Amino acid sequence: MIYYSTNNSKITATLEEAVVKGLASDRGLFMPERITKLPASFFEKIGGMSLQEISYTVASALFGEDVEDDVLKGIVYDAMNFDIPLVNVDGNKYSLELFHGPTLAFKDVGARFMARLLGYFNSKSDDKSTVNVLVATSGDTGSAVANGFLGVDGVKVFVLYPQGKVSDIQESQFTTLGKNITAIEVSGTFDDCQALVKNAFMDKALNEQMKLTSANSINVARFLPQMFYYFYAYAQLAKSGKDVSNVVVAVPSGNFGNICSALIGKAMGLPIKRFIAANNRNDVFYQYLQTGKYEPRKSVQTIANAMDVGDPSNFARVLDLYRQSHEAICGDISGCTYNDEQIAETMKATYSRTGYVLDPHGAVAYRALEECLAENETGIFLETAHPAKFRDTVERIIGAEISLPDKLRAFMQGTKQTVKIGADYEEFRQILSR
Ligand SMILES: *Cc1c(COP(=O)(O)O)cnc(C)c1O
Q1: Is 45 in the active site?
Q2: Is the CB of 216 under 6 A from ligand 1?
């Protein structure tokens, strides 16, 4: 399969190039050249298939031309080895719990898949030098990527994070791993971390000396596999004998990688009637739906902080998928936006009415279903992280204690190892090239 740049369809790459480079040479995002329709027979038997079987079928349509069957199957079965249950919360509303992976957040799926695919490409390449993955994180991305790549041969990961600005739970998930993972504690802000990573990518001499890549949702190997679990959500509804003719999915959205993978899944035939892009106060996409104008702005801080994005990278992919048509986009996606007070209110009310503990991100999407779902529709919202990852916030809001899952407790007991640097590029460069 050929991948083209959203800035210029004449700039193309193979899957391997797209995964190793991340961004196209003109800074555009890669999109698959063809969208393969899955056969009707697949959807007829999907209710009887496992998460791994479904993921492998979808992965074959995406990557089957570029990766041998048995290798792809190994990658998929290994990456998707945890459950993603669909849980009824209230009436016609279901939670797709994406938090049963190693770091208890949905980013585990893409990070684990990408790590294995990159490891594979590196092992069969003539140039066996180490690939260095650089990630700047304000919390969740760093932990998913670090754990996804832990122990993968030929790959080193550098996680940069702002000192004192991530929670203890988040920090423990990428600073206690050791092996091929280096955590870099930057005395500065998240923006400083991002600037350091950007500088490294633009440093010509450094790039000649070593292989550098990124692992955020601009990378096709991280973003596309996220569509697997939308198929599995549909399968679980089908299996339970529920009406699947009117399924609506609400996605808590920040950089729009998650929802964009689902939109491509729909184009491949997944019978989802429509999507709701749920935003916190960072609602440039919501505004775009209302006005047809895209006006990025600086992000503001909210209690659903993994969605605090003022200029979502994957918006370029959404536009490209719908051939820049505002009308076509509005046909498949509606939007919602909620402030912190509304998010908290939803978490509290849902807990007292149903006993279900929402995390702040999932709560944004749950509220969108409460407000926008018709009676004859079945709603699925994505629970993108375990509420215990935001324990202090969640406990304060719902007024009850929540227990820490064993996986999180185990991270908390590890020993923190970090390299401390200032926000100065020279120091970072030295760590990379030593
Ligand atoms: C990253 C993240 C999101 C936003 O996902 P996008 O793909 O960036 O839209 C939502 N919730 C949680 C918990 C996240 O970590």
Answers
A1: no
A2: no
Kindly state if the Cβ of 307 falls inside 6 Å of ligand 1: yes
Instruction: Report whether pLDDT(139) > 80.
Output: no
Token couple for 284: 């440039």
Going edge to edge, which strands form the sheet with 181-186?
211-214, 131-136, 155-162, 181-186, 419-421
**Is the beta carbon of 253 within 6 A of some atom in ligand 1?**
yes
8 Å CB contact between 346 and 366? yes
Please tell me if the CB atom of residue 95 comes closer than 6 angstroms to any atom of ligand 1: no
CA–centroid distance, 111 to ligand 1, in Å, is 13
The response to whether residue 361 sits with its C-beta less than 6 Å from ligand 1 reads yes
E strands, 39-151, are: 86-90, 93-97, 131-136
pLDDT given at position 27: 85
What does the mean pLDDT of the chain come to?
95
Q: pLDDT tens digits for 50-85? A: 999 999 999 999 999 999 999 999 999 999 999 999
Gap from CA of 385 to ligand 1 centroid (Å): 9
Q: Which of 107, 156, 266, 389 is catalytic?
A: 107
Count CA atoms closer than 13 A to 262's CA, side-chain side.
29
Structural domains of the chain sorted by starting position, each given as residue range(s) with its CATH number in brackets: 82-104+223-403 (3.40.50.1100)
Cα(381) to centroid(ligand 1), Å:
13
Winning range, highest mean pLDDT, from 16-30, 151-165, 196-210, 268-282: 268-282
Q: Which of 99, 258, 386 should be mutated for ligand 1, with most atoms under 8 A from CB?
A: 258
CA-based radius of gyration for the chain? 21
pLDDT at 418: 97
